[in-house]
Amino acid sequence: MARTASLSGFPEWLPEERLVELHVLDTLRRVFELHGFSSIETRAVETVGQLLRKGEIDKEVYGLSRLQEDEGTNPVKEGKADPHALALHFDLTVPFARYVVENAGYLAFPFRRYQIQKVWRGERPQEGRAREFTQADIDVVGDGELPFRYDVEIALVIAEALSALPIPDFRLRINNRKLAEGFYRGIGLDDTAGVLRSIDKLEKIGPAKVAELLKSELGATDEQAQKALQLAGIRAEDTSFVAQVQALGVTNDLLEEGLAELEQVVEAAVQRAPGKVVADLSIARGLDYYTGTVVETVLVGHEQLGSICSGGRYDALASKGNRKFPGVGLSIGVTRLVSRILSQDLARASRSVPTAVLVALANEDSWDVAQDVAAQLRSRGIPTEVAAKAEKFGKQIKFADRRGIPFVWFTDDDGTHQVKDIRTGEQVVAAPETWTPPAEDLTVQVSTVSEPAAV
Amino acid sequence: MARTASLSGFPEWLPEERLVELHVLDTLRRVFELHGFSSIETRAVETVGQLLRKGEIDKEVYGLSRLQEDEGTNPVKEGKADPHALALHFDLTVPFARYVVENAGYLAFPFRRYQIQKVWRGERPQEGRAREFTQADIDVVGDGELPFRYDVEIALVIAEALSALPIPDFRLRINNRKLAEGFYRGIGLDDTAGVLRSIDKLEKIGPAKVAELLKSELGATDEQAQKALQLAGIRAEDTSFVAQVQALGVTNDLLEEGLAELEQVVEAAVQRAPGKVVADLSIARGLDYYTGTVVETVLVGHEQLGSICSGGRYDALASKGNRKFPGVGLSIGVTRLVSRILSQDLARASRSVPTAVLVALANEDSWDVAQDVAAQLRSRGIPTEVAAKAEKFGKQIKFADRRGIPFVWFTDDDGTHQVKDIRTGEQVVAAPETWTPPAEDLTVQVSTVSEPAAV
């Protein structure tokens, strides 16, 4: 587990680590499908124009060039990215928006999809931040309009999905852009994006410096800055935040709308995902396409890892002519979670290979009989390998042990079969048509190792 | 299904098409794991030096550059690829070889792995050839040596895996490099790689032109060229090819070794995968790292699609100092298969969404009760959605119909529950704790539509 990736920022797992990742991926898929989300994948590449807004070169994007061209097909020319050049996607939201617009005629709206894929960012690698990593997204997208209830539902689905993973306790920290923006307008700060940008730095630089920023950059008065900070200071695991906001004495229609929306999410969460959700009015989210609900998620005791699941409502990410496709979605940082599970040994696979049974060879001529036994076991869903050489039984057992295979099967010349649990040494007569390992040995189990340690 | 990818060579599937792909991927995974193969993934990028041999610029490789650098980080400089630059992998064998060498100390050999990932090639797109596509590989790699039996096993596992897919009948066309090279040496043609290159063109240009090539480029006599072509003309679904080769009267130790190996594979296949394997002595395989068994696979009636599964034995792909890691493996072209299944309508998903049940809303206040019903159904593995709005029941049923959801659930004010099969109109009283849809409606089924049509 202490291995270092041979290319910094591009983690690779050993087979037993991959089993933990597979368990996470399978669990997410199961929960998403139980809630009626369809799987899609988008291509790994988009055009630079699709990925970058206003032609700015975003430092996080990897462009592609074809090596066979004499001078390459450098996607950057004279300091400007060619909008027609291809680049690797850096998230799954932008490609999904393009997919929805392109395929609108083939989709039934509201369209619910999950998407689990790798994304790439050219940034400096550090703990919790890789250059290649897997995201698991769910979104619901409407045609023209999308009922607010989906905001509630998405939060509940994600809470259920995260609860099913072998990870420490978590909190969805939820806020609402309308609430924040309405409040800022209500106190006379109209550059709401500017205020959000400053508030977003609260955890990094602290309230005093944020107040300075609000005053120096946005011309806020002392009182305005204090009000904005008071709002950002509100946190509640129930709907009591509503009274706290009202107590600040600010009135604004957008504020009221946002307050009612956030109340609806928190109310449902208190009932259906108790203890998993907190209204946290400091949450801003950097990207500016969010228009309502915004969410970040922390692992309790691992807050410095950053958000492991983020997203929110966007009313205008995708459009086709006059047709708008509002959506709400959340994205789980699978690689960030799996890295943490592995580095802190939070969960482990019960063995390192899928194989439950090794069929040993009594002699070189018995390979064929052994294949018959293996085929019978497999036909009943028991993962089985056949030894490749008729070495001494001790050596074949050692081979199984080294690979982590729990059972070894022996067939005598007279056709009697026996199976040995090499962990206990217990050996019993068995028939290939009927013998079954205990359920916990049939397939690899991934389970929590210990109480999650606070760090 | 007649949609065109918005970027040529980068196919994307609609949700109901993705269900067919998922079925293929799940089936392959199940078979591979039943045979004890461990899942791994490697990063999508390698260094150019790792990917390209002898520094030649291979036209198929996409290099990466970071867009934020002023002039980009063009991986090509003055017509030469920078070996330290990053590029997308074009297959899963080269990355796997690197992975084995890097992690040799953590792996138990012989190491069996499957790997299902996307790969990228910058070539001109055409039917059956995409720029981004998914491969599913299995390999067994040994430390120092690897018993030949794994060649037999790999072929059988692949035959079993392909048989489990909703595809037309297929043939594994198997040859052996030792057999071919030994034969060429035996008739006095020592540039065996050159002969293989010419023989590889047999299907494209025909025997007369191949004979010309052998004579003009390799200085073969008429008789040598004819012998080489006679060998390449041998095909047999059983071990009768051995006698046919021997009848050509060529003796060579390597030839004998290859003949015995190929006989062993075909003998086992005749018994365990009858009709699925053919000894085809024209198979050459372009890449030069193969050293024994070589395999290509065609779909019967779809031969012009090209090979859907290829690979073989490589004794020297990976090494670490004096330590050699011989391997044998096969790679299934998943995207090629799925494209064909979809374009020819060979298989279809039973519905386009995972959802089996839509819980309807009697009125806006019933959302909470509906969520309780949904949670109960989901807890028993039944994929369930809740309607977002209390529209007229007719509208809610239409919504389910449009999404392909087979059942709609109604809860009366008095707490009675009913469930309607909207395909038949049949409606029954049901309890959320016990009602279960028929097995074929519980999850999406993917099945063959019709007899595979010859093209």
Automatic annotation (TrEMBL), chains A, B:
Residues given in the record as L-histidine binding sites: D91, L92, T93, R121, Q135, D139, R285, Y289, Y290
E.C. numbers: 6.1.1.21
PROSITE patterns in alphabetical order: AA_TRNA_LIGASE_II
Keywords carried by this UniProt record: Aminoacyl-tRNA synthetase, ATP-binding, Cytoplasm, Ligase, Nucleotide-binding, Protein biosynthesis
Domain Aminoacyl-transfer RNA synthetases class-II family profile, chain residue ranges per copy: 110-354
InterPro entries noted in UniProt: aa-tRNA-synth_II, aa-tRNA-synth_II/BPL/LPL, Anticodon-bd, Anticodon-bd_dom_sf, His-tRNA-ligase, HisRS-like_core, HisRS/HisZ
EC category name: ligase
Keyword Protein biosynthesis: yes
GO biological process: histidyl-tRNA aminoacylation
One Gene Ontology term, aspect cellular component: cytoplasm
Domain of life of the source: Bacteria
Catalytic activity as recorded in UniProt: tRNA(His) + L-histidine + ATP = L-histidyl-tRNA(His) + AMP + diphosphate + H(+)
Molecular function terms, GO-annotated: ATP binding; histidine-tRNA ligase activity
Subunit comment: Homodimer.
Protein family per UniProt: Belongs to the class-II aminoacyl-tRNA synthetase family.
PANTHER family, A to Z: HISTIDINE--TRNA LIGASE, HISTIDYL-TRNA SYNTHETASE
Protein name in the entry: Histidine--tRNA ligase
Top-level taxonomy: Bacteria, Bacillati, Actinomycetota, Actinomycetes, Micrococcales
